[in-house]
């Protein structure tokens, strides 16, 4: 760290088009605080003071943040439901997929009714139904997901 | 002698050919004129017969080669995934890096217990998925072989950014042994390695039905998944609602987690995508500028040709010219 580094650092801190660094958020906030302090030289002379301030601020934030997060989690766990399942269930019942649904239901009845000596399976019918349902649900699903 | 005879013979051939052509021409003209007069029926028969031959040959071809022989049943083929409107696959869109971050969280907390991501180093995550300090901290959680020390022994050191993400198993055999004989594939290039890419992986992760359809046979230790070729997959459903807690408080539904992790895997498979699209944009910009320039230059170069006027100034009189 030479003399010119200090000068360039100061200039960089003062310019409005300062570059964004890939640093951890905590470090960034510290940097920002430092730059703020650079602009007000009085605060820079007494670092112990603002460090103390910062810790108190952080601890107060944690105190506020934790119980809220827990409450939200509990709410989420109760309410959380997969939009894909819901949309595909709706699509399965819709008019669009009625023919394939009919075929699938018929197949299921036939196969379950046949007993032990049946060699048929409903995989193909299930494929057609699943394809219809997911194709119908795809755009709606993407509008709901983040 | 020989040459002369050859020449003569060729001449004779040529004359014969000419004669034949002449004869055939005469015959054709005479027959056409004659047929119009006496038998339109024969012409009709020829047309019908040729059409019948054409139709028949097509029918025969279709009979021989027409129907496709499917070597596999639809179940063996697997259900083809639905196309989803992925935003990052559009031409002028980039990865959503918030989604990448969420996807990496899902990979780390869920997938990484079985699947390796061996081609992705921690340094690749910096700036795209994680901040530098976060990536460093993650790397330091694992141990890697150090260089040999003075006694030639290899010691362990904490990881650094240049190291690659650790694999859950030391080799494929260990992975198979731990997973009932099934090998969890490496996910680094998985989006490129499967038909359907992102759509396939998303469908596979979210497509486990509650129960297999009636009559479907599922092998021992396998689970029914319509999107997996053969429908029997050794991986059980892993994503359930609320499995991870996202730091940005996105509701962690099954499909949300699947979408995020698939986008992350797409990033892992082609981390250059954002840069590639920017480069493509640059190419388009430069090409359009150069094209516009070339149009202006052409106008400039052709200006004297386009704006010239050619005038014929006739001489006033022949006398004047001579004088």
From TrEMBL, chain A:
Q: Which SUPFAM superfamilies match?
A: Non-heme 11 kDa protein of cytochrome bc1 complex (Ubiquinol-cytochrome c reductase)
Q: Where is the composition biased (Low complexity)?
A: 13-27
* Record domain Ubiquinol-cytochrome C reductase hinge: where: 82-146
Cellular localization per UniProt = Mitochondrion inner membrane
Q: Does the keyword Transport apply?
A: yes
Main location per the UniProt record: mitochondrion
- UniProt biased composition (Acidic residues): 63-80
| Topology in the lipid bilayer | Peripheral membrane protein
Q: Which family does it belong to?
A: Belongs to the UQCRH/QCR6 family.
- What is the recorded name of this protein? Cytochrome b-c1 complex subunit 6, mitochondrial
| Originating organism | Schizothecium vesticola
The organism's taxonomy opens as: Eukaryota, Fungi, Dikarya, Ascomycota, Pezizomycotina
Automatic annotation (TrEMBL), chain B:
Keyword Metal-binding assigned: yes
Catalytic activity of the protein: a quinol + 2 Fe(III)-[cytochrome c](out) = a quinone + 2 Fe(II)-[cytochrome c](out) + 2 H(+)(out)
Question: What EC number(s) has UniProt assigned to this enzyme?
Answer: 7.1.1.8
Q: Name one GO cellular component term.
A: mitochondrial inner membrane
- Which InterPro entries does the annotation name? Cyt_c-like_dom, Cyt_c-like_dom_sf, Cyt_c1, Cyt_c1_TM_anchor_C
Compartments where located: Mitochondrion inner membrane
Q: What residues does the Cytochrome c domain cover?
A: 98-251
Read off the Pfam families from this record. Answer: Cytochrom_C1
Where, by residue number, does the polypeptide cross the bilayer?
279-297
Q: How is the cofactor bound?
A: Binds 1 heme c group covalently per subunit.
| Cofactor entry | heme c
What GO molecular function annotations does the UniProt record carry, in alphabetical order?
heme binding; metal ion binding; quinol-cytochrome-c reductase activity
Q: List, in alphabetical order, the GO biological process terms annotated in this UniProt record.
A: mitochondrial electron transport, ubiquinol to cytochrome c
Q: Specify the protein name.
A: quinol--cytochrome-c reductase
């Amino acid at each position: 760290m030479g003399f010119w580094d200090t000068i360039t650092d100061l200039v960089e801190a003062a310019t409005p088009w300062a570059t964004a660094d890939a640093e951890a958020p905590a470090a960034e906030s510290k940097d920002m605080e430092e730059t703020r302090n650079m602009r007000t030289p009085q605060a820079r002379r007494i670092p112990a003071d603002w460090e103390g301030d910062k810790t108190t601020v952080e601890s107060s934030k944690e105190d506020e943040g934790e119980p809220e997060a827990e409450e939200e989690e509990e709410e989420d766990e109760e309410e959380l439901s997969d939009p894909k399942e819901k949309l595909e269930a709706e699509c399965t019942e819709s008019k669009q997929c009625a023919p394939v649904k009919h075929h699938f239901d018929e197949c299921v009845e036939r196969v379950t009714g046949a007993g032990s000596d049946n060699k048929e399976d409903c995989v193909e019918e299930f494929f057609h139904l699943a394809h219809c349902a997911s194709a119908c649900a795809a755009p709606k699903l993407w509008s709901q997901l983040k | 002698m020989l040459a002369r005879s050859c020449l003569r013979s060729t001449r004779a051939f040529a004359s014969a050919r000419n004669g034949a052509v002449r004869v055939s021409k005469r015959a054709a003209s005479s027959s056409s004129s004659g047929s119009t007069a006496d038998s339109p029926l024969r012409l009709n028969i020829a047309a019908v017969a040729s059409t019948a031959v054409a139709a028949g040959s097509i029918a025969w071809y279709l009979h021989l080669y027409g129907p496709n022989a499917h070597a596999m049943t639809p179940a063996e083929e697997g259900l083809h995934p639905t196309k989803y409107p992925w935003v990052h696959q559009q031409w002028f869109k980039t990865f959503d890096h918030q989604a990448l971050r969420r996807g990496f969280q899902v990979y780390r907390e869920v997938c990484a217990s079985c699947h390796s991501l061996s081609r992705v180093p921690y340094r690749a995550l910096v700036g795209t998925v994680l901040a530098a300090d976060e990536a460093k901290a993650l790397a330091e959680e694992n141990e890697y072989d150090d260089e040999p020390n003075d006694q030639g022994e290899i010691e362990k050191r904490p990881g650094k950014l240049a190291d690659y993400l650790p694999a859950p198993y030391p080799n494929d055999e260990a992975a198979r042994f731990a997973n009932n004989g099934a090998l969890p594939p490496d996910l680094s290039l998985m989006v490129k390695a499967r038909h359907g890419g992102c759509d396939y992986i998303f469908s596979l992760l979210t497509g486990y039905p509650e129960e297999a359809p009636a009559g479907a046979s599922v092998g021992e230790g396998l689970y029914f998944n319509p999107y997996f070729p053969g429908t029997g997959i050794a991986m059980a459903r892993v994503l359930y609602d609320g499995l991870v807690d996202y730091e940005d408080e996105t509701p962690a539904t099954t499909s949300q987690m699947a979408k995020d992790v698939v986008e992350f895997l797409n990033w892992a498979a082609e981390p250059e995508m954002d840069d590639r699209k920017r480069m493509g944009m640059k190419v388009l910009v430069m090409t359009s500028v150069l094209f516009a320039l070339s149009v202006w230059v052409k106008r400039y170069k052709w200006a004297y040709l386009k704006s010239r006027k050619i005038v014929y100034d006739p001489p006033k009189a022949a006398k004047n010219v001579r004088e």
